[in-house]
């Protein structure tokens, strides 16, 4: 398999002809990283549910690199980014309740939405 045959989807999962033959991981199994060549694209910083930790660096999501990726992806569309993060926060809260936890809503708000005012930019005219 050549490096150009490897694709990474939005969830950070490698999608190749070989990976399609493997069974999916069951909940509770360890998410083992695949060995990739050094010139491969870096793995995206995406959430791992239901823990809502980064699949790449294991920090609470959205981690710093994920925030930078989101700013770039939603550049000029800060309202859409706020809606995306608010819905992600609601899903994280729902997941925590489903796991029997009691999330601190103020902490969750700061984690998911508190950094947005620093990243907000208006869309250029034209």
Give a brief rundown of this model.
By secondary structure, this protein is mostly helical. It has helices spanning 17-21, 64-73, 78-98, 105-113, 116-119; strands at 7-8, 14-15, 47-48, 53-54. Strands 1-2 form a two-stranded antiparallel ribbon.
How far apart the termini lie comes to: 44 Å
Strand order of the largest sheet: 1-2
Gross geometry: flat
Mean pLDDT score, rounded?
Answer: 79
What is the overall number of helices? 5
Element pattern in H and E: EEHEEHHHH
Q: Could you describe the largest sheet, including whether it forms a barrel? A: 2 strands, antiparallel
Please give the radius of gyration in angstroms: 17 Å
Question: Are there runs of 5+ residues with pLDDT below 50, and where?
Answer: 23-29
Instruction: Estimate what percentage of residues fall within beta strands.
Output: 5-15%
Overall strand count: 4
As a percent range, the share of helical residues equals 25-40%
Tell me the structural class: mainly alpha
């Amino acid at each position: 398999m050549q490096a150009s045959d490897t694709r990474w989807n939005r969830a950070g999962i490698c999608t190749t002809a070989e990976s399609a033959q493997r069974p999916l991981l069951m909940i509770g199994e360890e998410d083992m990283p695949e060995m990739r060549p050094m010139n491969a694209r870096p793995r995206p910083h995406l959430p791992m549910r239901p823990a809502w930790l980064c699949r790449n660096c294991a920090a609470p999501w959205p981690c710093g690199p994920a925030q930078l990726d989101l700013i770039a992806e939603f550049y000029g569309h800060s309202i859409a980014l706020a809606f995306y993060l608010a819905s992600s926060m609601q899903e994280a809260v729902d997941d925590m309740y489903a796991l029997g936890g009691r999330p601190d809503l103020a902490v969750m708000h700061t984690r998911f939405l508190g950094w947005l005012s620093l990243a907000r930019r208006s869309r250029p005219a034209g």
